[in-house]
TrEMBL record:
Belongs to the ABC transporter superfamily. It comes from Paenacidovorax caeni. Keywords: Amino-acid transport, ATP-binding, Cell membrane, Membrane, Nucleotide-binding, Transport. Pfam families: ABC_tran. This is Amino acid/amide ABC transporter ATP-binding protein 2, HAAT family. The keyword Ribonucleoprotein does not apply. Residues 8-247 form the ABC transporter domain. The keyword Transport applies. It comes from the Bacteria. GO terms for molecular function: ATP binding; ATP hydrolysis activity; branched-chain amino acid transmembrane transporter activity. GO terms for biological process: L-amino acid transport.
Amino acid sequence: MDSKNIVLNVNGIEVIYNHVILVLKGVSLSVPEGSIVAILGGNGAGKTTTLRAISNLLKAERGEVTKGSIDLRGERIDNLSPSDLVKRGVVQVMEGRHCFAHLTIEENLMTGSYTRKSKGEIAANLEKVYNYFPRLKTRRTSQAAYTSGGEQQMCAIGRAIMANPSLVLLDEPSMGLAPQIVEEVFNIVQDLNKKEKVTFVLAEQNTNMALKYSDYGYIMESGRIVMDGTASDLASNEDVKEFYLGVGGGERKSFKDVKSYKRRKRWLA
Ligand SMILES: Nc1ncnc2c1ncn2[C@@H]1O[C@H](COP(=O)(O)OP(=O)(O)OP(=O)(O)O)[C@@H](O)[C@H]1O
Ligand SMILES: [Mg+2]
């Protein structure tokens, strides 16, 4: 990979919560400009923590990066505030959507443009968002609380796009959505990636869907990256199939399945 084209580099970060709980145990990843990179793994693997470390949103959770560094286009960003990061084009879309329930869709979108001053630019961004998310246009005056889960996810991504980002950290966009809606959301993400040149880092439990739409993937377990590769290599890897895609050996296996667990330990060893 040509290092000139790497937009984001995470170098061996450790994250501790509440001064004692070591959650990330040396996580490294690199994100090429213009790509969609997936961070995959089950509950509690450390995906959200990794995204929060990048966007510097750990403090609110009493977490801190205690080792390693994070660079954006070769410059250290670990000490920048979340709003400085937004100004540099790094925006996070939180897990669980987090739209303001009492605001309309359009009001929610407008909250994403707080770093932008020019009215013309804000209006143009709003049109751009409506262009990518026609559903949001039809629901523009609806209170977010009364829109569907899919529309709220679109609203959360649309709000991020209002800040003109170059890098969007997308946490679990598929959560709680029907497969067809997940496809719709991912198709728009892919469109934004291709046409607006937005780079995405996508944290997902839905390995199948995430690999379908991303270029490269990192698999996390217990605060470590245990495997990485191109999306197509991961999608055809036997271990990935068994543990994350649920297609190996016929029926779906759960993480708690003893046999899987043993084999997983072997794989991790
Ligand atoms: N604020 C916190 N204080 C203490 N521990 C935390 C905190 N937030 C997360 N953790 C712990 O850190 C570990 C990683 O959590 P994280 O939310 O990053 O995982 P995740 O991969 O995003 O999981 P999920 O898929 O369930 O969202 C878990 O063991 C979790 O319990
Ligand atoms: Mg998470």
